[in-house]
Each structure stands twice: as structure tokens, then as C-alpha cells.
Amino acid sequence: MTVTGERQEIRLDDVEFNRRDHPDRPLRPIPPGRDHFAAQWRQMREFMFGQWIDIDKEVEPNELTRLRDDYFWQGDEHIIGVVDAFECLGYEKGRALYEQALTQGIDSLEDPPREFVEFFEHLDQLPSQFDLEAAERGRMLAMSATKTATMIIQGWAFYETAMTGDISASTGATGRFADDGPRRFIETARVFAEFTLPDIFDRHSEAFQDVIRVRLMHGLASRGLRRKWGDDVYLKFGEPIPVTSLLGFGSGMLLGRLVDHAFGRKLTSQELEDLAEYSSYSGRLWGAPERLYSPTGLELIKSLNYVLARGGNPSPWRAELVDAIAGPAHLTTLTDALPGLVKKLVARHANQLTATLALVPAGAVFGYQQIEAMVAGSFFEPLGYNYERRVRIFTEIAKLNVRIAMVADKLPWSNPIREQRKKTGAAARERIAMLNKIARGRQIPLTFTSHDLSTKGEGFTG
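User: That's the sequence. What structure does it adopt?
Assistant: C-alpha cells below.
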């Protein structure tokens, strides 16, 4: 099968392969359906990266952009083989062996599949490929982002889910937020909280292992979507959950301090390098290949600028996703572990709270117009909230928060209790404990196994 037009003819056998198995084959061009720069990402890129690079010059074709174009055609290069083995073994045996190798080591398996051996050797070696002292300094810096910067990045995650072309399409088509919302929400919140723990650098920790469970879930879902959508969609847009997009999954570790930097709390060059090491480790753990590693902080910014510039326009599932993710049910889920009076108060003002805490913050970097575009046609549009005013007020609060942080940064001492909490990840552990309590109360299994039966694409929408 081929796709033709003004562009060079694209044949399936020229693009559908694992780069890890064919390192010398010509680089693949960007999938034609992704070959544009959607306007919605422009203001954010200028705000976040404009102080560091020329955001337009750095998206012109070069080695960095061509490599990222190439990986839009495939998923996680190490998980592809694991998914193959998973299908051959059957999901029950495949899951059991995967969990045993993950928690007890690949040596605990008798005659394991070759694909499992290669994958778990990759995992066992991964921490040693990074400067973990620098990455830990980067983690501590990320944890010192202002509260408003953290809110912006949390809102950004919501915005990306609804508004990025491939993320909104794959998330919408699998239907997990709509059909299994509380579990999907809690699993997602938990794994991102775990990423901020010092344990994330330990191969044997639950935090590390949960991320690897999500890697398999992405691989299984992408295989199912690939089969459901067929060759025509693949030849236009590439892999449903492409490896290039995985670069952005680790970027949240860096983005909070880039927000603060843009508001005036400047990073030193060494701080940027430490944050980059933490973010690069995070990206690799999510499944980004070694070939896409950025050797410096500035190169990582260039990479993020390009990947985000290729974010595209939202899929037809946008409004449905906004309703599923931001509807009152999820806030009710999140407050399950709180006292009854607080739950009643939250339930009464759920929409106002969601708009203020989940929707508005991202407007500080994307612009209020993009928040209006995100909620158009959703549950929130007829509520008539003034996003221009709310974003303006939040932005002023963010600037004030940064000024206070800058004063605190200059003090010759620091709060030892606060520093110890950051070092141990106390706030994240408390958040994880709360999520676990909610899950137990609702009898929700947090096993990241929802897509074990998804590789045939049954139950997905087209």
C-alpha cells in the first residue's frame, strides 16, 4: 500500500519497521498528516523557549528534527518485541511472566522469551547510563518550582490530553476516561506522583516499576489502535502512540522551572543541565530511545520546541475528553478520602473549582483563547465562565509567586523541614497514599492492566 500526492510516494514497507533492528535504513520523512505547525502551540513555545532559542529557526529541517520525524512512525522500540511475545504467550501468561521479571528480575524466569530478556536487560542497565547525582539535583530543582508553576504544568497535562492530535485521538478512541474514568484518573495521577520520588532512580522500586507497567500499556494500546485504524490511517499519521511523543512525557520534570524562568526566576546554566539530566532520564524511562537523547539542556529545549510544535490540532474526541476528564465525577473521586463537610463543599462548587484549578492555569502560557477553544462544545462552554479575566488574574498571582520565590532563593538559609520533605518526596508520598485509599474504598485495582486484551483493537472506535 502507498500514499501519493505532491510528497514523495510512501510505501508501507519503507516506513513500518523498528529502527532498533534497522539502524542503517534511511530516515523516514514525517508522516504527511503531521507535516504542519498548528497555531495553538505558538504562544506557549515563545513564552517557554523564546528566551533560550529562536523557536522558528529551530524547527527548520536539521539532524534533530529529522530524527524526531523518523520516530513518528513507530512506538517504543524496546516494547514492540515485548508486545509480540505477549501476543504469542497469551495475555494471562504474558502478564504473569512480565510481572515476575519486573519485580523479581529476568533471571527468576525459566526459559524466558528472547524479547523479555532484551527488554529487562535494557531496564537493568538504564540507571547506569545517566549521571544520577545530577539527575537527583534536577529532581530537587523541579520540586522547588513555585506552586503556580506546578498548577500550570498540571493544567498543561490536561490541555495536552485534549488538544494534541495523537494523544487526544488515542485517548479518545480507547475510551478509558469515558468508560473507566476513576481507574484511569487514579492510575495516571499516581504514576506522575511517583515520578517525583527519589525512588524513581531505583530499578527495584514500585515507582520505577509502575512506569514500566505504563510502558507496556502504551505498547498494547498502540498495537490495538494500529490494527483498528488500518494502513491508510497509519500511512497518513504514523504510529498511534509514537515514540517521538514519549519525549514529552518526561518533559514535565523540566517545564515547571522553565515556567518560573520565563516569569523571572532565572536558572543558571548548571541548573538547566541538572534539570535536563532528570528530564532525559524520565523520557528514557517512558520509552524514548537513546538516539533521541539530548546531550545538553539547550538541546533538550530545542527538542521540546520541535516536538511540541508538531502537536497538531485536536481530534474529534476533544470535547468528549474534556467532559470525561474534567466533569464533576472526577473531582468527586479525588475528594473521596476527605471529610464529609469538605466533600459536600467541593461537590457544591465542583465546576468553579475545576475551571479555576484545572483549566485556567494552562492559559497563562497558552493564552485564554486556547482554553476557550479547548472547552468549546463541552460541558463547560454553556457555563459562561470569563476565561480571559480568570487567566489574567491567575497570571498576576503567578508573577507574585515567582517574586516571593526569588526573594526566598536569595536568603542565606533554607527551611530544613521543607528541604527534607523535598528530598524524601513526602508530599508525593502523601498524595499517593490518598489515591491508594480512594482506590481501596472504590475497589479499583491499580495494576495498569486495562489494555491486556487490547491488541486486536476490539472495543476501540475508529
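The chain has one domain: 79-442.
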